[in-house]
Amino acid sequence: MALPRFGLNRFDGRRLLRILRNVFPDFHHAPDLEASGRVVDFLTEAAADVFCLRGGPAEIVKQLLGVLRSAPATFDYVCLHPIPNPATPDDPERGFMARVAREVLPPVRAALGGGAR
Questions:
Q1: Which domain holds residue 99?
Q2: I need a labelling partner for 78 at 20 to 30 A (CA). Which of 31, 62, 104, 112 fits?
Q3: Per-residue pLDDT, 116
Q4: Among 1, 7, 2, 82, which residue's Cα sits nearest to residue 47?
């Protein structure tokens, strides 16, 4: 299979099997995220951009607004799930959930006309 849009002229199914064998249980929950990343370092940033939001809060806001504004249907809920899976309990001030609630969701709501709750 070819995915030239993502810099892949030919996708080898054997490579996928190696990936699945070497990353357990998956990229999101793997204990060694750097090793997981090395397994897929052949993918381009464009490929990553198709399925994830990347960057700091301002970049995440921009990407999230782009997705929501270009979607063919409206979203009732948006649930951001971090990679890596944050340790629990999450830090109530500096953890992922606190930062998303404080730094990402209010500007998204404001830009979409929903105010900042």
A1: 52-111
A2: 31
A3: 47
A4: 7
Asked, for residue 102, whether it belongs to a domain, the answer is yes
Judge whether 97 lies within some domain: yes
Sole residue written with tokens 């404080």:
102
Residue that has been written with the tokens 């199914």 in this structure: 13
Here the tokens at position 114 are 């929903």
Distance, CA of 116 to CA of 23 (rounded, Å): 39
Q: Tell me the backbone φ, ψ of residue 8, rounded to 5 degrees.
A: -110, 110
Residue 48's closest CA among 57, 58, 36?
36
Distance of CA 49 to the CA centre of its chain: 8
Mean pLDDT of 73-77: 82
Amino acid at 92: P
